[in-house]
Amino acid sequence: xxxxLDERLDLQRLNSKLFRKAFPVHHTFFLGEITLFAxxxxxxxxxxxxxxxxxxxxxxxxxxxxxxxxAYASILYIDSLPFGAVIxxxxxxxxxxxxxxxxxxxIRIHLSGAYKKPRELNWLVGIGLxxxxxxxxxxGYALPFDNYAITATKIGYEIGAAAPWVGGLLVNIxxxxxxxxxxxxxxxxxxxxxVLWLPLTLIALIGLHLLIMVKQKHxxxxxxxxxxxxxxxxxxxxxxxxxxxxxLFLVYVAVTTLIAGIFLAHPVQAYGPPTxxxxxxxxxWYFLWIYGILQMIPSNWKFELLGxxxxxxxxxxxxxxxxxxxxxxxxxxxxAQPHKQRYLELPSQHPGRTSFVIGMLMFYIMxxxxxxxxxxxxxxxxxxxxxLFVPILTGVVAYVILRAFYGKAPQxxxxxxxxxxxxxx
Length: 425
Known about the structure:
Membrane topology: Multi-pass membrane protein
Oligomer: single chain
GO molecular function, one term: metal ion binding
Strand order of the largest sheet: 1-4
Order of helices and strands: HHEHEEHHHHHHHEHHHEEHHHH
Shape: globular
Low-confidence stretches: 413-425
Subcellular location: Membrane
Mean pLDDT: 91
Main location: membrane
Pfam family, one: Cytochrom_B_N_2
Largest sheet: 2 strands, antiparallel
Number of helices: 17
CATH topology of the largest domain: Cytochrome Bc1 Complex, Chain C
């Protein structure tokens, strides 16, 4: 059978060119794989959810006689199925893990200088993947159609509508008109975007990301420069890397299922179907820093230009995030170099870049803290100091410490006893 297939598909060549490609072994490289595993679980659990979910707000009568919107009632039905609540919870937590792993993966790339030539394009694809994963998560917010979900989604609607000149068109595409509990087209529109168009785009971008990675190959861990200069050091894609990835995937599924079973996500019964009352809500952690900035910006920060209004939602929800995304996209072109980057750089040997990353992380933490402005009764002036000056101070302190400890004599890790398998380049 193998000979028959080999004669037609040239499996020997495929094995030598693709399956024997070397994968460097480094624990931080698994962040990218965890991101992929989370996406796979999202798709698998999403298939189960779509088979039992009705994307409609028509009134239905439940077996116990309640009259409820169909979308909300179908979530109750899913939770009543064997393991239904766990699978829905697994879908929820995998979305969090995918965004967190992708974010940490980008930080690893930044700290190690792996975005440099020739990987600028894959850095941009990675930014697109992270942004798209967050947008995909947002479009799933309203689908349970409970009081919490609708209120939280409305915050995003108002931010989208605040986009100068194109805000109306944008929210019309996403929400099929005005945001309203009685808009019968809103849930079907968000459902189709959430389960079809955005996942297809994510699959295309993930495929492009992997294709570029295979073509350009991984950056090598620093020790490879000393062990085997100019060579690719690692384990073959099959069977070694494939077995490790398979084991990691099973561990991922086991751990996240345990988490999903212990911490059931988003109990819709506690919130109830949409009402005229607006509950106190906060977005998930990956939106909380934007929510915090919105809390800080005074309502009178507003002016009009050429028919467009530039208000607080624009400054906090669009301007600042766009500025950060564009800044991240520009990094490979600001920190450019003429030669190809083959090896990972040690963060300790690049104190300027490392302290910048630490300062940005502190900015996200402080902006997230601002999201609790009302809960903690924090004055606005204090929040501005925390968000603007504490990250700068943190970055400066980190730079001084790194320069003091590593600036005079750059350190490299000792190889001592390392054994690796040289593989194809």
